[in-house]
Write a structure and sequence with these properties.
Layout: E1 2-3, H1 9-20, E2 26-29, H2 32-38, E3 43-46, H3 55-59, E4 64-68, H4 77-89, E5 94-98, H5 111-120, E6 125-130, H6 142-148, E7 150-153, E8 159-160, H7 165-177, E9 185-189, E10 195-196, H8 197-208, E11 213-216, H9 219-228, H10 233-244, H11 257-262, H12 269-275
Parallel strand pairs: 1-2, 1-4, 2-3, 4-5, 5-6, 6-9, 7-11
Antiparallel strand pairs: 8-10
Helix pairs in contact: 1-7, 4-5, 8-12, 9-10
Length: 284
């Protein structure tokens, strides 16, 4: 299975889950040597979503493909959707796309156009729609936690049922092991409990042994804050839209699908923080 974005959180979890399940994985990314070092013994392929000449060689002979949109990719037409076109031409067996919750109806997020392209294709596919990732604490929120002991977001009192990307990897491996059972399915995936960001700050405070606070803000200041951290404007806009959506309850529902598929509860946010507490060590 070709795993797009193997250097990231979700793709990395999929490579690990496929390997544990005894399924062949082909880790794809722009830096093959780094992938070889990260995944000893796993096949590696160079894939650059901005370079269409890498698409066919990366997909050649692949029994399936796990697709995820890297945050830096804003235009999905010439990148992800073009890759799907090549996969269709090469008759790749099954595609699992990691989308986001609500992308089937939310035309603002880029994932919506990828879902449309999949549904229009002749490919066999499954769409995963996870909500907010536990790993956001190590990515989007990490700098503020480490440097300022705060979580700054435009999310108000909104709650999120955080999902660990390790569980997404396990679901993807399950789908690839029996694709016929999951063909044309769209699965909403959440963690086992919904927390607001005061809860998240309290959890971090307890685990790290220093006070972490949640600081609510509005959309425009947050957009500027994210861009000032070095993220492109398009990425900053998507991140802002997703977080302001929490105010309307867009990610608070705990869905039973993950537990039903895996036969176990999902990992909690507390488990994730405990397993990775060194990531938020204070610079002091």
């Amino acid at each position: 299975m070709l795993v797009v974005g193997a250097s990231g959180n979700i793709g990395g979890a999929v490579v690990s889950a496929l390997t544990r399940a005894g399924l062949a994985a082909r880790a794809a990314g722009t830096h093959p040597t780094a992938l070889e070092n990260r995944y000893p013994g796993v096949e590696v392929a160079r894939l650059d979503l901005l370079d269409p000449t890498t698409f066919a060689p990366a997909l050649d002979g692949a029994a399936g493909m796990f697709l995820v949109r890297p945050p830096a990719i804003a235009k999905v037409g010439p990148t992800l959707n073009a890759l799907l076109g090549v996969a269709e031409r090469l008759q790749v067996g099954h595609v699992v796309f990691s989308s986001v919750t609500g992308a089937d109806t939310n035309r603002v997020v880029p994932h919506h156009r990828v879902e449309e392209r999949l549904r229009e294709s002749a490919l066999s596919w499954t769409i995963l729609r996870p909500g907010f990732f536990s790993q956001n604490l190590a990515d989007a929120y990490r700098s503020d936690i480490v440097n300022d002991d705060r979580i700054l977001l435009p999310s108000g009192e909104g709650r999120a049922a955080f999902i660990d990307t390790r569980d997404i990897g396990d679901v993807a491996a399950l789908v690839f092991a029996a694709p016929d059972a999951h063909r044309s399915a769209g699965y909403v995936l959440t963690g086992p409990q919904a927390l607001n960001f005061d809860d998240v700050a309290a959890l971090l405070t307890s685990e790290l042994g220093r006070p972490i606070r949640y600081e609510p803000t509005s959309a425009l200041p947050y957009l500027r804050h994210v861009h000032a951290q070095g993220r492109p404007w398009v990425q900053a806009i998507v991140q802002t839209v997703l977080h302001t959506g929490l105010r309307r309850g867009q990610a608070e529902n705990v869905d039973p699908t993950l537990e039903r598929l895996l036969g176990r509860p999902g990992r909690t946010l507390a488990q994730y923080v405990h397993d990775n507490r060194e990531l938020w060590a204070s610079p002091a």
